[in-house]
Structure formats: C-alpha cells, structure tokens
C-alpha cells in the first residue's frame, strides 16, 4: 500500500454552466451530456473520459532496492515531523504500477529521462540491457531522454532503442540477442549538427479508441556540459522551450490537441518531503529552479509537464502564459515514487480539460516494500544476478560505519573525500603521474557505502558490486598540470557562471587541500582566496601543480571550463580501479573509518 491514501477519481462531466477559458489552452467548454452517460459506458459515449497518466523519472537502472539514504523517501507528518520510508526496487515498482492501473480503461505510462546510465552494477555491468528489459515489463510507453542516456554515446543509446548485441562484448546470454526497448525514446531538442535533424523521434502519439495524447521529450539544454564530450560529439542540445513549442504546434497540425511534455530538467521544492504541497501559499509558490521558467514560457498548447533531473519530488500547479493552471510533476528517483495524474480528455475538442487548482491534483505515491514482489521482476533479477555473481560478490574492502555519498546533502561528502583520497594515492607515484591533489565531481558519486550487509557478505564488507554502484562510469583518470590561478578559478566556478551560479556543484577534494567557502557572499566571491592551501601552504597562483581528476572533469564537465586549459596530460587507471585498490588495503580488523569531512570550511 502507498503511504498516501488512494484518491478515487470519478469521471468529471462538463455541464451547461462550465466555464470557457482561453482556446487552445486545454479549455473548459460548455457542453450538455446525455442523461446517465458514463465514461466509456452506455449506449452513447460521454463527452469526457479520464485518462490515467502514471509517470516516473531518474530510474538509473536501479533494479534492486536502493541502499542507504538513497533507499528512503521522507514523508511529512500531520504534526510537522518527518518519517523515513524505505522505498524502491523494480519488483515493488512493478506491483505498484500494476495495482494503480486496475479499473482504469485508459492508462498511459511515461517517464522523463535517465532511465539508464549511472546504474548499479546489476544493470551497468551489462550496459543496461537488464533495465531496458525491466522497463519493457513495466509497460512503459514512452520516455524523454536525459543526460545519462548519453553516458556511453549516441550509438549505444540507439542500440538501447533498437536492439542488437553489444559491439564489443557481444551477447550476454547464450542464444539471446538484445531486442531493445518496446517503448519510445524521445529527443526533440537533440539534433545532429550536420543534418540539423533530431537524432531520435521528437514526438509520440498515444492512442486508444478515439483518444489521442501527444508526448514531446527533451533533455536539459545543458546536457553537453554534464556528460563526457566524446559521448555527444556531433550533437547539439537546443533550448527546451523553443523545441517543445515547435513540436506542440506540429502536433496540433496533426490534429493532436492534448499534449504532455517529458522534460529532463527540474525544480527544487522548499521542503524535501515527497508529500509537501508546493502550491502553498499559491500556485507554484513552493518550488524554484530551472523548471519554473520553462513552465512559465511553454505554449499553453502543452497541458502537463512531467519532469526530472533534480531527483526531487513535487506535484505543483504553475500557470501557463495564458494564466491557466498546468500540472508540473516529478517523482524523485530510483523508482521510489511514481506520480498518478488524471487527464480529463474532451472528445469533442480533443483537448485536456484544465481543472481549477482546487480540483484533485497529481499525487506522488510511495513504492513501499511491504507489498508483494512482482514475480517476473524477481526472475529477471535472479537471472542477471547469476551472470554477475562471480564479479559482484567479490569482497573489495571493509568499512567501520556508513559512509554517506549520494545521500549526503552537505557540500563536502565523506565518500567524496574517500574517493578523492583513493585517486590521489593511486596517482601520486612519479611513474603514475605525480599527482599532488585530486578533484572529484559530486555527481559522479552515485550511492552511499552502507555498513549493513546487502547480501550474505557480512556487515562492513564492501563488495565489487557495491563499489561499482558508487562509481559506475568507468572514467579514465587524467593527471594534468594546472597553475594555482587555474585551481582557484576552478573553485570559483563551483559557485558561479552559467552552469553553477544558481545551483553550486562543490568538488570533493583530497586530504591536504583545504579552503573556506563563504555562502554569505555571492558568486565567485564565495571562495575565500587566501584560505586555499595545499598541505598548509597557500596556493601560489604562478606555481604549477599536478592534479588528478577523471576525464569528465578534465574535459570541462559540470561547467568547470578552466579545467580544459590543462597541460601535460597523462592518462591513468580507471577511477573504479583506483577506488577498489584503496578499499583493498583495508581489513576486517582494520576497516576504513569514514572521513570527518573537514577539508572545506563552510560559512552559512
């Protein structure tokens, strides 16, 4: 059962007193209905029919229940306190979606990107084929692409869509060829630089009987800034609003008036609880971030927005440019939630009826773990687990307590320090690059390290599968020359510029590298320059330092453009190899103690 009470929605009828609002904006239109007419029943069809839209986002190949804090959702209680609820796991997500669909003649399931990429080992080891198989079984109809769909490049994304065995590793299961997705990937704002055409379908039209709903899928315009450059070479990522408006007009020309945008860009609610009401004190008052401007500028032809990327939960009503209410939703991440939305379809206008803010809104529902597991998903997990077991269950090291990473909201994360230390230790020897410090991007930390055993390995044991889940991208390490001035600029780019000015990305740093981050200031001034030190000595702007970082950062990813100006690059070992080597020096008697995370002094 969901932690949120079920809302039983009945078909809403338009009456002679219904309000008429702006045409083309999902208008309420005055109409009389035959007496006793019901949605889909009786001798005559009713004027309107309710279509159930189930949606989720940022699944990231999370087939098994996510561990640590990433495996919980926060629920706000009536007395203002909060409660953590264990959630997620595709066995439970399948059960939740299948139960939700019962009794709904018209039901469509959509997603807003990052279905794959950044995945735990069970999926990532097999290039996310297990996740595509699972999403097929979930009866997903359509998803927009997200930035992580490009982790392995555009050719691999097309393989996910259309099938075929891996070009290097071949087929993973004897006698079986990967068949690809049964759902549609949409990429309306991703175009080929040469042909100017979308690299994949921009739109999808879902049909059942006389009901038609169009979907437009886009990823964030800044995708090229947050993925490895080689993976998106030759592609252009265009403005989300312009792209959606363009294809909304095209769908209208095809007679499709009901439109849902699947947008891999999101917002930040004022409260992290999944059941927080972001429409208090007014519509959309409790949410900020990029999705707000997008929502306010999208053509009124678009009736609802399913969003993602920020891994937050919200169900808001942000007025469109015509002033009409429009739903904007996101279901956190990792399959811990799904959103249940009712779209009231007018058969005469072929448009979605925009209900007042006071009417029932979309609701985020928890994928709890106290419900039956879907047996087909259990079989899928067991089958792929058997293939992965010889590698996944291999112990890598030992920890004395939980080491927060992805689940930490602090600027400096204990697991971030640990990863940076591992990179520095691996690449400090002269013949390995002579690194003096290491920098790690926070988005590359995909999980926590949990002390409690996930299987039968024992508490405190870190398996290969768990270390892989933390660092799944297989980024090659680069050791480069940077001047002290460039290092300081890199720190300033954490909290300034077009990419990180509004939403800072704080680099994780190796031991011995320290500085003060003053959040009472603004922009680049938040970095207290004379506090930046290496092993107690002030950074000299004119001096050259050897710095270790992954190839994503060295390519200027996450808005750190100054890092592309490096010199004397040496390519080192993969980041996961560095991490596992560091873990491998620990023992049960001498486990790794979580770093205290005191390298960055934060003034709030």
UniProtKB/TrEMBL annotation:
Domain of life: Bacteria
GO cellular component, one term: outer membrane-bounded periplasmic space
A GO molecular function held by the record: 5'-nucleotidase activity
Domain Calcineurin-like phosphoesterase, first and last residues per copy: 56-312
Domain (5'-Nucleotidase C-terminal) ranges: 402-565
Segment forming the signal sequence: 1-37
Gene3D superfamilies named among the record's database cross-references: 3.60.21.10, 5'-Nucleotidase, C-terminal domain
Keywords recorded for this protein, A-Z: Hydrolase, Nucleotide-binding, Signal
Biological process terms in GO annotation: nucleotide catabolic process
Family indicated by similarity: Belongs to the 5'-nucleotidase family.
Protein name: Bifunctional metallophosphatase/5'-nucleotidase
Organism (species): Streptomyces subrutilus
């Amino acid at each position: 059962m969901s932690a949120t009470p079920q809302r039983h929605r009945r078909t809403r009828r338009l009456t002679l007193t219904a309000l008429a609002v702006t045409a083309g904006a999902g208008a309420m239109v005055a109409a009389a209905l035959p007496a006793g007419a019901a949605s889909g029943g009786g001798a005559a069809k009713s004027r309107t029919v309710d279509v159930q839209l189930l949606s989720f986002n940022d699944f990231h190949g999370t087939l098994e229940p996510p561990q640590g804090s990433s495996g919980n959702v926060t629920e706000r209680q009536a007395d203002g306190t909060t409660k953590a609820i264990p959630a997620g796991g595709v066995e439970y997500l399948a059960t939740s979606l299948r139960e939700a669909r019962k009794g709904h003649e018209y039901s469509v399931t959509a997603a807003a990107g990052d279905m794959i990429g950044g995945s735990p080992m069970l999926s990532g080891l097999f290039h996310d084929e297990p996740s595509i198989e699972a999403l097929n079984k979930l009866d997903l109809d359509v998803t927009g692409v997200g930035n992580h769909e490009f982790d392995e490049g555009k050719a691999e994304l097309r393989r996910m869509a259309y099938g075929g065995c891996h070009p290097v590793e071949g087929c993973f299961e004897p006698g079986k060829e990967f068949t690809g997705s049964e759902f549609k990937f949409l990429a309306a704002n991703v175009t080929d630089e040469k042909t100017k055409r979308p690299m994949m379908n921009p739109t999808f039209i879902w049909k059942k009987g006389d009901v038609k709903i169009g979907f437009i899928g886009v990823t964030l315009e800044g995708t090229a800034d947050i993925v490895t450059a080689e993976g998106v070479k030759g592609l252009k990522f265009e403005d989300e609003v312009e792209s959606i408006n363009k294809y909304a007009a095209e769908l209208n020309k095809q007679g499709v008036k009901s439109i849902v945008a699947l947008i891999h860009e999101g917002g930040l609610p004022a409260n992290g609880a999944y059941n927080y009401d972001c429409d208090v004190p007014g519509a959309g008052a409790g949410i900020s971030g990029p999705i707000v401007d997008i929502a306010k500028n999208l053509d009124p032809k678009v009736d609802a927005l399913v969003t993602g990327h920020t891994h937050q939960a919200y169900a808001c009503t942000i007025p469109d440019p015509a002033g009409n209410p429009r739903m904007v939703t996101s279901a956190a991440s990792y399959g811990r939630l799904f959103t249940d939305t009712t779209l009231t379809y007018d058969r005469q206008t072929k448009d979605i009826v925009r209900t007042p803010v006071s009417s029932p809104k979309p609701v985020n529902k928890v994928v709890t773990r106290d419900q039956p597991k879907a047996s087909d998903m259990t079989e899928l997990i067991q089958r792929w687990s058997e293939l992965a077991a010889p590698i996944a269950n291999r112990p890598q090291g030992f920890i004395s307590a939980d080491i927060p990473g992805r689940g930490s909201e602090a600027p400096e994360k204990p697991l971030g320090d640990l990863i940076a230390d591992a990179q520095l230790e691996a690449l400090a020897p002269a013949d390995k690059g002579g690194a003096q410090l290491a920098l790690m991007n926070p988005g590359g930390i995909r999980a926590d390290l949990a002390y409690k055993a996930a299987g039968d390995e024992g508490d405190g044991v870190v398996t290969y599968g768990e270390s892989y889940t933390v660092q799944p991208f297989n980024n090659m390490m680069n050791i480069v020359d940077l001047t002290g001035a460039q290092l300081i600029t890199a720190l300033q780019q954490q909290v300034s510029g077009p990419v990180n000015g509004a939403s800072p990305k704080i680099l994780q740093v190796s031991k011995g590298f320290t500085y003060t981050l003053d959040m009472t200031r603004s922009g680049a001034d938040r970095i207290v320059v004379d506090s930046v030190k290496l092993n107690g000595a002030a950074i000299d702007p004119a001096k050259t330092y050897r710095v270790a970082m992954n190839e994503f950062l060295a390519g200027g990813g996450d808005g750190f453009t100054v890092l592309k100006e490096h010199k004397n690059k040496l390519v080192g070992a993969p980041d996961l190899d560095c991490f596992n080597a560091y873990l491998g020096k620990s023992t049960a008697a001498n486990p790794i103690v979580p770093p205290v995370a005191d390298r960055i002094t934060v003034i709030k």
